[in-house]
Automatic annotation (TrEMBL), chains A, B:
PROSITE patterns: HTH_GNTR. Coiled coil: none annotated. This is DNA-binding FadR family transcriptional regulator. CDD domains: WHTH_GntR (cd07377). Keywords: DNA-binding, Transcription, Transcription regulation. Residues 9-77 form the HTH gntR-type domain. The keyword Transcription regulation applies. SUPFAM superfamilies: GntR ligand-binding domain-like, Winged helix' DNA-binding domain. InterPro entries: GntR_C (IPR011711), TF_FadR/GntR_C (IPR008920), Tscrpt_reg_HTH_GntR (IPR000524), WH-like_DNA-bd_sf (IPR036388), WH_DNA-bd_sf (IPR036390). The keyword DNA-binding applies. One of its GO terms (molecular function) is DNA-binding transcription factor activity. It comes from the Bacteria.
Length: 238, 238
DNA sequence: ACACCTCAGCTCCTCAGACAACCTGAGAGG
DNA sequence: CCTCTCAGGTTGTCTGAGGAGCTGAGGTGT
Protein backbone atom coordinates (compact mmCIF):
# COMPACT_ATOMS: atom_id res chain seq x y z
CA UNK A 1 0.00 0.00 0.00
CA UNK A 2 2.78 2.46 0.84
CA UNK A 3 1.31 5.74 2.05
CA UNK A 4 4.27 7.62 0.66
CA UNK A 5 7.01 9.41 2.51
CA UNK A 6 5.69 11.52 5.35
CA UNK A 7 9.14 12.83 6.06
CA UNK A 8 10.93 15.03 3.59
CA UNK A 9 13.60 13.09 1.75
CA UNK A 10 17.18 13.21 2.85
CA UNK A 11 19.33 16.20 2.08
CA UNK A 12 21.38 14.13 -0.33
CA UNK A 13 18.25 13.15 -2.26
CA UNK A 14 17.11 16.75 -2.40
CA UNK A 15 20.51 17.88 -3.58
CA UNK A 16 20.60 15.11 -6.18
CA UNK A 17 17.20 16.16 -7.46
CA UNK A 18 18.21 19.79 -7.69
CA UNK A 19 21.37 18.97 -9.62
CA UNK A 20 19.57 16.53 -11.88
CA UNK A 21 17.00 19.17 -12.73
CA UNK A 22 19.72 21.57 -13.78
CA UNK A 23 21.01 18.92 -16.15
CA UNK A 24 17.79 17.52 -17.61
CA UNK A 25 16.30 20.98 -18.01
CA UNK A 26 19.16 21.91 -20.28
CA UNK A 27 20.46 24.56 -17.90
CA UNK A 28 23.73 22.62 -17.78
CA UNK A 29 24.22 21.03 -21.25
CA UNK A 30 26.65 18.22 -21.94
CA UNK A 31 30.20 19.39 -21.40
CA UNK A 32 29.36 21.86 -18.67
CA UNK A 33 31.66 21.97 -15.66
CA UNK A 34 29.70 22.03 -12.43
CA UNK A 35 30.56 24.56 -9.74
CA UNK A 36 33.05 23.30 -7.17
CA UNK A 37 32.04 21.31 -4.10
CA UNK A 38 32.39 24.19 -1.70
CA UNK A 39 30.44 26.52 -3.98
CA UNK A 40 27.62 24.01 -4.45
CA UNK A 41 27.56 23.33 -0.72
CA UNK A 42 27.10 27.02 0.00
CA UNK A 43 24.49 27.46 -2.74
CA UNK A 44 22.47 24.44 -1.65
CA UNK A 45 22.92 25.18 2.03
CA UNK A 46 24.36 21.75 2.87
CA UNK A 47 27.70 20.29 3.85
CA UNK A 48 30.43 19.32 1.46
CA UNK A 49 30.03 15.58 1.94
CA UNK A 50 26.34 15.89 1.15
CA UNK A 51 27.20 17.51 -2.15
CA UNK A 52 29.83 14.85 -2.81
CA UNK A 53 27.31 12.06 -2.29
CA UNK A 54 24.75 13.75 -4.52
CA UNK A 55 27.33 14.08 -7.28
CA UNK A 56 28.31 10.46 -6.73
CA UNK A 57 24.69 9.38 -7.19
CA UNK A 58 24.50 11.23 -10.50
CA UNK A 59 27.81 9.70 -11.47
CA UNK A 60 26.41 6.24 -10.75
CA UNK A 61 23.45 7.10 -12.96
CA UNK A 62 25.83 8.07 -15.75
CA UNK A 63 24.85 11.73 -15.90
CA UNK A 64 28.12 13.25 -14.78
CA UNK A 65 31.76 12.28 -14.63
CA UNK A 66 34.33 13.57 -12.15
CA UNK A 67 37.98 14.20 -12.91
CA UNK A 68 40.26 14.77 -9.99
CA UNK A 69 41.82 18.18 -10.10
CA UNK A 70 39.68 19.30 -13.03
CA UNK A 71 36.10 19.19 -11.82
CA UNK A 72 32.75 17.50 -12.43
CA UNK A 73 31.42 17.43 -15.98
CA UNK A 74 28.02 16.71 -17.49
CA UNK A 75 28.28 13.76 -19.88
CA UNK A 76 24.60 12.96 -20.52
CA UNK A 77 21.31 14.75 -20.10
CA UNK A 78 18.98 11.77 -19.98
CA UNK A 79 18.61 9.27 -17.16
CA UNK A 80 20.21 6.44 -19.11
CA UNK A 81 17.24 5.06 -21.02
CA UNK A 82 15.92 1.79 -19.66
CA UNK A 83 16.14 -0.56 -22.66
CA UNK A 84 14.29 -3.50 -21.17
CA UNK A 85 11.29 -1.28 -20.47
CA UNK A 86 11.51 0.34 -23.88
CA UNK A 87 11.58 -3.02 -25.62
CA UNK A 88 8.62 -4.24 -23.59
CA UNK A 89 6.60 -1.29 -24.85
CA UNK A 90 7.68 -1.67 -28.47
CA UNK A 91 5.79 -3.78 -30.99
CA UNK A 92 7.07 -7.34 -31.27
CA UNK A 93 7.44 -6.95 -35.01
CA UNK A 94 9.73 -3.95 -34.62
CA UNK A 95 11.85 -5.70 -32.02
CA UNK A 96 12.11 -8.78 -34.19
CA UNK A 97 13.00 -6.76 -37.25
CA UNK A 98 15.93 -5.16 -35.49
CA UNK A 99 16.95 -8.48 -34.06
CA UNK A 100 17.05 -9.93 -37.56
CA UNK A 101 19.04 -7.06 -38.88
CA UNK A 102 21.62 -7.33 -36.11
CA UNK A 103 21.89 -11.07 -36.04
CA UNK A 104 22.21 -11.64 -39.76
CA UNK A 105 25.29 -9.48 -39.89
CA UNK A 106 26.57 -11.12 -36.74
CA UNK A 107 26.40 -14.47 -38.55
CA UNK A 108 28.56 -13.03 -41.30
CA UNK A 109 31.18 -11.87 -38.80
CA UNK A 110 30.95 -15.18 -36.95
CA UNK A 111 31.77 -17.11 -40.11
CA UNK A 112 34.89 -14.97 -40.53
CA UNK A 113 36.12 -15.10 -36.95
CA UNK A 114 34.91 -18.30 -35.30
CA UNK A 115 37.49 -20.24 -33.32
CA UNK A 116 37.55 -23.94 -32.55
CA UNK A 117 35.98 -23.23 -29.19
CA UNK A 118 33.14 -21.37 -30.91
CA UNK A 119 32.51 -24.34 -33.20
CA UNK A 120 32.34 -26.70 -30.25
CA UNK A 121 29.89 -24.38 -28.48
CA UNK A 122 27.75 -24.17 -31.62
CA UNK A 123 27.51 -27.95 -31.95
CA UNK A 124 26.65 -28.26 -28.28
CA UNK A 125 23.92 -25.61 -28.61
CA UNK A 126 22.56 -27.34 -31.70
CA UNK A 127 22.38 -30.64 -29.83
CA UNK A 128 20.72 -28.86 -26.92
CA UNK A 129 18.09 -27.43 -29.26
CA UNK A 130 17.34 -30.91 -30.63
CA UNK A 131 17.04 -32.33 -27.13
CA UNK A 132 14.73 -29.52 -26.02
CA UNK A 133 12.38 -30.13 -28.95
CA UNK A 134 10.69 -32.70 -26.76
CA UNK A 135 10.39 -30.37 -23.77
CA UNK A 136 7.90 -27.60 -23.11
CA UNK A 137 7.64 -24.36 -25.06
CA UNK A 138 9.79 -22.26 -22.75
CA UNK A 139 12.61 -24.78 -22.67
CA UNK A 140 12.57 -25.09 -26.46
CA UNK A 141 12.63 -21.32 -26.93
CA UNK A 142 15.49 -21.03 -24.43
CA UNK A 143 17.50 -23.64 -26.30
CA UNK A 144 16.78 -21.91 -29.59
CA UNK A 145 17.92 -18.58 -28.20
CA UNK A 146 21.04 -20.20 -26.76
CA UNK A 147 22.01 -21.38 -30.23
CA UNK A 148 21.52 -17.93 -31.71
CA UNK A 149 23.46 -16.42 -28.82
CA UNK A 150 26.33 -18.78 -29.58
CA UNK A 151 26.40 -17.50 -33.16
CA UNK A 152 26.53 -13.91 -31.95
CA UNK A 153 29.25 -14.75 -29.43
CA UNK A 154 31.35 -16.20 -32.26
CA UNK A 155 31.45 -12.76 -33.86
CA UNK A 156 33.77 -11.72 -31.01
CA UNK A 157 32.47 -8.21 -30.53
CA UNK A 158 31.54 -7.41 -26.91
CA UNK A 159 29.26 -4.55 -27.88
CA UNK A 160 27.37 -6.85 -30.21
CA UNK A 161 27.12 -9.55 -27.55
CA UNK A 162 25.78 -7.04 -25.04
CA UNK A 163 23.31 -5.75 -27.58
CA UNK A 164 21.94 -9.19 -28.34
CA UNK A 165 21.69 -9.95 -24.63
CA UNK A 166 19.58 -6.83 -24.31
CA UNK A 167 17.09 -8.24 -26.78
CA UNK A 168 16.89 -11.70 -25.28
CA UNK A 169 14.13 -11.08 -22.70
CA UNK A 170 11.80 -9.40 -25.21
CA UNK A 171 12.70 -12.04 -27.79
CA UNK A 172 12.03 -14.88 -25.40
CA UNK A 173 8.57 -13.65 -24.53
CA UNK A 174 7.73 -12.94 -28.16
CA UNK A 175 8.84 -16.38 -29.29
CA UNK A 176 7.01 -18.17 -26.50
CA UNK A 177 3.84 -16.32 -27.45
CA UNK A 178 4.37 -17.18 -31.10
CA UNK A 179 5.02 -20.87 -30.46
CA UNK A 180 2.00 -20.99 -28.19
CA UNK A 181 -0.25 -19.01 -30.53
CA UNK A 182 0.47 -20.86 -33.73
CA UNK A 183 0.72 -24.25 -32.07
CA UNK A 184 4.05 -24.63 -33.79
CA UNK A 185 6.31 -27.51 -33.09
CA UNK A 186 3.53 -29.79 -31.87
CA UNK A 187 3.46 -32.55 -34.42
CA UNK A 188 6.00 -30.72 -36.55
CA UNK A 189 8.84 -32.63 -34.99
CA UNK A 190 11.68 -30.14 -34.69
CA UNK A 191 10.92 -27.19 -36.94
CA UNK A 192 13.92 -25.48 -38.40
CA UNK A 193 16.41 -28.07 -37.28
CA UNK A 194 17.79 -28.52 -40.78
CA UNK A 195 18.06 -24.76 -41.24
CA UNK A 196 19.90 -24.36 -37.96
CA UNK A 197 22.23 -27.23 -38.80
CA UNK A 198 22.96 -25.58 -42.15
CA UNK A 199 23.73 -22.31 -40.35
CA UNK A 200 26.18 -24.00 -38.00
CA UNK A 201 27.85 -25.75 -40.93
CA UNK A 202 28.19 -22.49 -42.85
CA UNK A 203 29.80 -20.76 -39.86
CA UNK A 204 32.08 -23.73 -39.38
CA UNK A 205 33.18 -23.66 -43.01
CA UNK A 206 33.75 -19.93 -42.79
CA UNK A 207 31.24 -19.30 -45.56
CA UNK A 208 30.04 -15.83 -44.61
CA UNK A 209 27.63 -15.44 -47.51
CA UNK A 210 25.92 -18.75 -46.89
CA UNK A 211 25.67 -18.10 -43.14
CA UNK A 212 24.08 -14.74 -43.81
CA UNK A 213 21.61 -16.10 -46.35
CA UNK A 214 20.60 -19.07 -44.22
CA UNK A 215 19.92 -16.99 -41.15
CA UNK A 216 18.19 -14.27 -43.15
CA UNK A 217 15.88 -16.90 -44.60
CA UNK A 218 15.00 -18.35 -41.25
CA UNK A 219 14.40 -15.01 -39.56
CA UNK A 220 12.39 -13.65 -42.50
CA UNK A 221 10.18 -16.70 -42.27
CA UNK A 222 9.56 -16.18 -38.56
CA UNK A 223 9.06 -12.47 -39.14
CA UNK A 224 6.38 -13.26 -41.72
CA UNK A 225 4.64 -15.50 -39.20
CA UNK A 226 4.78 -12.70 -36.64
CA UNK A 227 3.23 -10.24 -39.08
CA UNK A 228 0.44 -12.68 -39.88
CA UNK A 229 -0.20 -13.29 -36.20
CA UNK A 230 -0.24 -9.56 -35.54
CA UNK A 231 -2.76 -9.02 -38.36
CA UNK A 232 -4.90 -11.96 -37.26
CA UNK A 233 -4.96 -10.68 -33.70
CA UNK A 234 -5.99 -7.26 -34.97
CA UNK A 235 -5.05 -4.43 -32.66
CA UNK A 236 -4.52 -6.50 -29.55
CA UNK A 237 -1.69 -4.59 -27.93
CA UNK A 238 -1.15 -4.29 -24.18
CA UNK B 1 43.74 11.05 -28.00
CA UNK B 2 43.27 9.57 -24.58
CA UNK B 3 46.08 7.17 -23.71
CA UNK B 4 43.95 5.46 -21.13
CA UNK B 5 44.17 5.63 -17.38
CA UNK B 6 47.72 5.24 -16.13
CA UNK B 7 46.58 5.70 -12.58
CA UNK B 8 44.48 3.13 -10.81
CA UNK B 9 40.92 4.24 -10.40
CA UNK B 10 39.84 6.04 -7.29
CA UNK B 11 39.14 4.17 -4.09
CA UNK B 12 35.46 4.98 -4.42
CA UNK B 13 35.39 3.45 -7.90
CA UNK B 14 37.17 0.35 -6.68
CA UNK B 15 34.79 0.00 -3.76
CA UNK B 16 31.83 0.51 -6.07
CA UNK B 17 33.12 -2.20 -8.36
CA UNK B 18 33.64 -4.63 -5.51
CA UNK B 19 30.16 -4.09 -4.15
CA UNK B 20 28.60 -4.27 -7.60
CA UNK B 21 30.30 -7.60 -8.21
CA UNK B 22 28.84 -9.02 -5.03
CA UNK B 23 25.41 -8.05 -6.29
CA UNK B 24 25.62 -9.00 -9.97
CA UNK B 25 27.37 -12.28 -9.17
CA UNK B 26 24.37 -13.30 -7.10
CA UNK B 27 26.34 -13.36 -3.87
CA UNK B 28 23.94 -10.76 -2.51
CA UNK B 29 20.50 -11.48 -4.05
CA UNK B 30 17.64 -8.98 -4.06
CA UNK B 31 16.50 -8.25 -0.54
CA UNK B 32 19.89 -8.74 1.07
CA UNK B 33 20.93 -6.23 3.71
CA UNK B 34 24.49 -5.09 3.14
CA UNK B 35 26.95 -5.10 6.05
CA UNK B 36 27.06 -1.81 7.93
CA UNK B 37 29.15 1.10 6.72
CA UNK B 38 31.76 0.68 9.45
CA UNK B 39 32.01 -3.05 8.76
CA UNK B 40 32.39 -2.50 5.03
CA UNK B 41 34.95 0.22 5.63
CA UNK B 42 37.05 -2.16 7.70
CA UNK B 43 36.65 -5.03 5.22
CA UNK B 44 37.53 -2.88 2.20
CA UNK B 45 40.27 -1.05 4.04
CA UNK B 46 38.89 2.42 3.32
CA UNK B 47 37.24 5.21 5.24
CA UNK B 48 33.55 5.38 6.01
CA UNK B 49 32.94 8.33 3.66
CA UNK B 50 34.45 6.34 0.82
CA UNK B 51 32.06 3.47 1.48
CA UNK B 52 29.16 5.89 1.71
CA UNK B 53 29.97 7.36 -1.69
CA UNK B 54 30.32 3.93 -3.26
CA UNK B 55 26.92 2.95 -1.89
CA UNK B 56 25.52 6.24 -3.14
CA UNK B 57 26.81 5.49 -6.64
CA UNK B 58 25.07 2.11 -6.63
CA UNK B 59 21.97 3.81 -5.30
CA UNK B 60 22.08 6.25 -8.20
CA UNK B 61 22.36 3.31 -10.58
CA UNK B 62 19.27 1.77 -8.98
CA UNK B 63 20.97 -1.31 -7.57
CA UNK B 64 20.53 -0.61 -3.86
CA UNK B 65 18.30 1.49 -1.65
CA UNK B 66 19.22 2.92 1.75
CA UNK B 67 16.90 3.34 4.70
CA UNK B 68 18.10 5.45 7.56
CA UNK B 69 18.45 3.45 10.71
CA UNK B 70 17.71 0.17 8.96
CA UNK B 71 20.51 -0.37 6.48
CA UNK B 72 21.25 -0.68 2.77
CA UNK B 73 19.25 -3.20 0.76
CA UNK B 74 19.72 -4.77 -2.66
CA UNK B 75 16.74 -3.94 -4.88
CA UNK B 76 18.02 -5.07 -8.30
CA UNK B 77 20.74 -7.39 -9.52
CA UNK B 78 21.21 -6.00 -12.99
CA UNK B 79 23.32 -2.93 -13.60
CA UNK B 80 20.16 -1.11 -14.70
CA UNK B 81 21.45 -1.37 -18.24
CA UNK B 82 23.47 1.76 -18.72
CA UNK B 83 24.25 1.72 -22.42
CA UNK B 84 25.92 5.13 -22.58
CA UNK B 85 28.42 4.08 -19.92
CA UNK B 86 28.91 0.68 -21.51
CA UNK B 87 29.61 2.25 -24.87
CA UNK B 88 32.04 4.73 -23.34
CA UNK B 89 34.06 1.84 -21.97
CA UNK B 90 33.98 -0.20 -25.16
CA UNK B 91 36.65 0.04 -27.84
CA UNK B 92 35.81 2.51 -30.59
CA UNK B 93 36.35 -0.13 -33.24
CA UNK B 94 33.78 -2.44 -31.68
CA UNK B 95 31.25 0.33 -31.37
CA UNK B 96 31.81 1.38 -34.93
CA UNK B 97 31.53 -2.17 -36.21
CA UNK B 98 28.12 -2.60 -34.63
CA UNK B 99 27.07 0.80 -35.87
CA UNK B 100 27.99 -0.24 -39.41
CA UNK B 101 26.14 -3.48 -39.11
CA UNK B 102 22.98 -1.79 -37.87
CA UNK B 103 23.04 1.16 -40.18
CA UNK B 104 23.69 -0.71 -43.40
CA UNK B 105 20.56 -2.77 -42.91
CA UNK B 106 18.70 0.36 -41.90
CA UNK B 107 19.61 1.86 -45.27
CA UNK B 108 18.05 -1.15 -46.98
CA UNK B 109 14.82 -0.73 -45.05
CA UNK B 110 14.87 3.02 -45.64
CA UNK B 111 15.02 2.50 -49.39
CA UNK B 112 11.94 0.30 -49.16
CA UNK B 113 9.86 2.49 -46.89
CA UNK B 114 10.90 6.11 -47.30
CA UNK B 115 8.10 8.63 -47.65
CA UNK B 116 8.16 12.00 -49.38
CA UNK B 117 8.79 13.65 -46.01
CA UNK B 118 11.81 11.39 -45.47
CA UNK B 119 13.22 12.35 -48.85
CA UNK B 120 12.85 16.03 -48.06
CA UNK B 121 14.58 15.52 -44.70
CA UNK B 122 17.40 13.62 -46.39
CA UNK B 123 18.03 16.39 -48.89
CA UNK B 124 17.99 18.97 -46.14
CA UNK B 125 20.49 16.94 -44.09
CA UNK B 126 22.71 16.50 -47.13
CA UNK B 127 22.69 20.26 -47.71
CA UNK B 128 23.46 20.79 -44.04
CA UNK B 129 26.44 18.47 -44.25
CA UNK B 130 27.77 20.40 -47.24
CA UNK B 131 27.37 23.70 -45.44
CA UNK B 132 29.07 22.39 -42.31
CA UNK B 133 32.10 21.24 -44.28
CA UNK B 134 33.46 24.75 -43.85
CA UNK B 135 32.82 24.84 -40.11
CA UNK B 136 34.80 23.30 -37.28
CA UNK B 137 35.25 19.58 -36.65
CA UNK B 138 32.41 19.20 -34.14
CA UNK B 139 29.90 20.98 -36.36
CA UNK B 140 30.86 18.87 -39.36
CA UNK B 141 30.61 15.63 -37.38
CA UNK B 142 27.22 16.69 -36.06
CA UNK B 143 25.97 17.40 -39.56
CA UNK B 144 27.32 14.08 -40.77
CA UNK B 145 25.57 12.22 -37.95
CA UNK B 146 22.36 14.11 -38.65
CA UNK B 147 22.37 12.80 -42.22
CA UNK B 148 22.90 9.25 -41.09
CA UNK B 149 20.19 9.67 -38.46
CA UNK B 150 17.82 10.80 -41.20
CA UNK B 151 18.52 7.58 -43.11
CA UNK B 152 17.80 5.50 -40.02
CA UNK B 153 14.62 7.48 -39.35
CA UNK B 154 13.42 6.68 -42.87
CA UNK B 155 13.41 2.98 -41.96
CA UNK B 156 10.38 3.71 -39.79
CA UNK B 157 11.22 1.38 -36.96
CA UNK B 158 11.15 3.08 -33.54
CA UNK B 159 13.34 0.44 -31.92
CA UNK B 160 15.94 0.99 -34.60
CA UNK B 161 15.75 4.75 -34.22
CA UNK B 162 16.21 4.47 -30.47
CA UNK B 163 19.10 2.10 -30.92
CA UNK B 164 20.90 4.45 -33.27
CA UNK B 165 20.30 7.35 -30.90
CA UNK B 166 21.99 5.32 -28.19
CA UNK B 167 25.11 5.11 -30.31
CA UNK B 168 25.25 8.77 -31.25
CA UNK B 169 27.22 10.10 -28.25
CA UNK B 170 29.95 7.45 -28.51
CA UNK B 171 29.95 7.86 -32.28
CA UNK B 172 30.23 11.60 -32.07
CA UNK B 173 33.26 11.51 -29.81
CA UNK B 174 34.92 8.78 -31.86
CA UNK B 175 34.43 10.66 -35.10
CA UNK B 176 35.66 13.95 -33.67
CA UNK B 177 38.80 12.20 -32.44
CA UNK B 178 39.26 10.57 -35.84
CA UNK B 179 38.81 13.79 -37.79
CA UNK B 180 41.14 15.55 -35.40
CA UNK B 181 43.74 12.77 -35.36
CA UNK B 182 44.00 12.16 -39.07
CA UNK B 183 43.66 15.79 -40.02
CA UNK B 184 40.87 14.73 -42.33
CA UNK B 185 38.79 17.22 -44.16
CA UNK B 186 41.39 19.98 -44.02
CA UNK B 187 42.24 20.60 -47.64
CA UNK B 188 40.16 17.62 -48.71
CA UNK B 189 37.19 19.79 -49.47
CA UNK B 190 34.18 17.78 -48.41
CA UNK B 191 35.20 14.15 -48.12
CA UNK B 192 32.50 11.64 -48.87
CA UNK B 193 30.06 14.16 -50.25
CA UNK B 194 29.64 12.24 -53.49
CA UNK B 195 29.15 8.99 -51.56
CA UNK B 196 26.55 10.55 -49.32
CA UNK B 197 24.77 12.06 -52.29
CA UNK B 198 24.73 8.64 -53.95
CA UNK B 199 23.29 7.14 -50.79
CA UNK B 200 20.49 9.67 -50.67
CA UNK B 201 19.74 9.10 -54.36
CA UNK B 202 19.61 5.34 -53.87
CA UNK B 203 17.19 5.69 -50.96
CA UNK B 204 15.12 8.11 -53.00
CA UNK B 205 14.94 5.72 -55.94
CA UNK B 206 14.03 2.88 -53.60
CA UNK B 207 17.08 0.90 -54.68
CA UNK B 208 17.68 -1.13 -51.52
CA UNK B 209 20.70 -3.02 -52.84
CA UNK B 210 22.48 0.12 -54.00
CA UNK B 211 21.74 1.93 -50.74
CA UNK B 212 23.15 -0.97 -48.76
CA UNK B 213 26.27 -1.25 -50.89
CA UNK B 214 26.98 2.49 -50.89
CA UNK B 215 26.71 2.81 -47.14
CA UNK B 216 28.63 -0.40 -46.52
CA UNK B 217 31.44 0.95 -48.65
CA UNK B 218 31.60 4.24 -46.82
CA UNK B 219 31.47 2.74 -43.36
CA UNK B 220 34.02 0.04 -44.21
CA UNK B 221 36.36 2.76 -45.36
CA UNK B 222 36.01 4.69 -42.10
CA UNK B 223 36.31 1.47 -40.12
CA UNK B 224 39.59 0.74 -41.87
CA UNK B 225 40.85 4.20 -40.92
CA UNK B 226 39.84 3.56 -37.33
CA UNK B 227 41.71 0.27 -37.25
CA UNK B 228 44.81 1.93 -38.64
CA UNK B 229 44.60 4.72 -36.09
CA UNK B 230 44.15 2.19 -33.29
CA UNK B 231 47.19 0.24 -34.48
CA UNK B 232 49.27 3.37 -34.87
CA UNK B 233 48.39 4.42 -31.34
CA UNK B 234 49.50 1.01 -30.08
CA UNK B 235 47.60 -0.54 -27.22
CA UNK B 236 46.08 2.63 -25.91
CA UNK B 237 42.79 1.29 -24.62
CA UNK B 238 41.22 2.49 -21.40
C1' DA C 1 58.04 33.55 -32.73
C1' DC C 2 57.89 29.10 -30.81
C1' DA C 3 58.41 25.30 -27.62
C1' DC C 4 59.31 23.94 -23.06
C1' DC C 5 59.43 24.35 -18.01
C1' DT C 6 57.89 25.98 -13.46
C1' DC C 7 54.56 27.01 -10.23
C1' DA C 8 50.62 28.91 -7.78
C1' DG C 9 45.86 28.22 -7.27
C1' DC C 10 42.20 25.60 -7.83
C1' DT C 11 39.85 21.13 -7.93
C1' DC C 12 38.58 16.57 -6.36
C1' DC C 13 39.96 12.49 -3.06
C1' DT C 14 40.30 10.45 1.36
C1' DC C 15 40.19 10.12 6.15
C1' DA C 16 38.79 10.72 11.10
C1' DG C 17 35.79 12.31 14.51
C1' DA C 18 31.56 14.01 16.30
C1' DC C 19 26.66 14.34 16.85
C1' DA C 20 21.81 13.87 15.21
C1' DA C 21 17.96 11.15 13.41
C1' DC C 22 16.12 6.85 12.92
C1' DC C 23 14.86 1.76 12.90
C1' DT C 24 14.59 -2.65 15.10
C1' DG C 25 13.97 -6.08 18.39
C1' DA C 26 13.82 -7.39 23.27
C1' DG C 27 11.70 -6.87 27.43
C1' DA C 28 8.46 -4.77 30.92
C1' DG C 29 3.94 -3.70 31.92
C1' DG C 30 -1.00 -3.49 31.13
C1' DC D 1 -2.31 -10.63 23.64
C1' DC D 2 -1.37 -5.88 22.95
C1' DT D 3 1.22 -1.68 24.00
C1' DC D 4 4.93 0.95 25.64
C1' DT D 5 9.71 1.80 26.66
C1' DC D 6 14.39 1.61 25.78
C1' DA D 7 19.03 0.26 24.44
C1' DG D 8 21.93 -0.81 20.62
C1' DG D 9 22.98 -0.46 16.03
C1' DT D 10 22.38 1.96 11.65
C1' DT D 11 22.37 5.72 8.35
C1' DG D 12 22.54 11.05 7.84
C1' DT D 13 25.16 15.19 8.20
C1' DC D 14 28.84 18.35 9.17
C1' DT D 15 33.62 19.88 9.85
C1' DG D 16 38.59 20.08 9.57
C1' DA D 17 42.71 18.32 7.72
C1' DG D 18 46.02 16.73 4.39
C1' DG D 19 47.05 14.43 -0.20
C1' DA D 20 46.95 14.12 -5.26
C1' DG D 21 46.05 16.01 -9.67
C1' DC D 22 44.81 19.49 -13.30
C1' DT D 23 45.10 24.07 -15.48
C1' DG D 24 46.54 28.36 -17.02
C1' DA D 25 49.84 32.18 -16.38
C1' DG D 26 54.34 33.51 -16.73
C1' DG D 27 59.21 32.81 -17.34
C1' DT D 28 63.04 30.68 -19.93
C1' DG D 29 65.69 28.94 -23.70
C1' DT D 30 66.08 28.07 -28.64
Amino acid sequence: MSLGALRPSSLVDQATRRLREQITSGEWPVGTRLPGETTLAKELGVGRSTVREAVRALSGAGLVQTRQGAGVFVVATEPAEDWPARLRRAAVVHVYEVRTLVEVQAARLAAERRTDADIAALHEALAGRRAAAAGDDAAFVDADIALHAAVVAAAHNPVLTDLFAEFVPALRQGLIDLVDLLGLRHGDGNPGDDTHAALVRAVERGDAGEARRTLQGELDHTLALLREAAQAAGSAGP
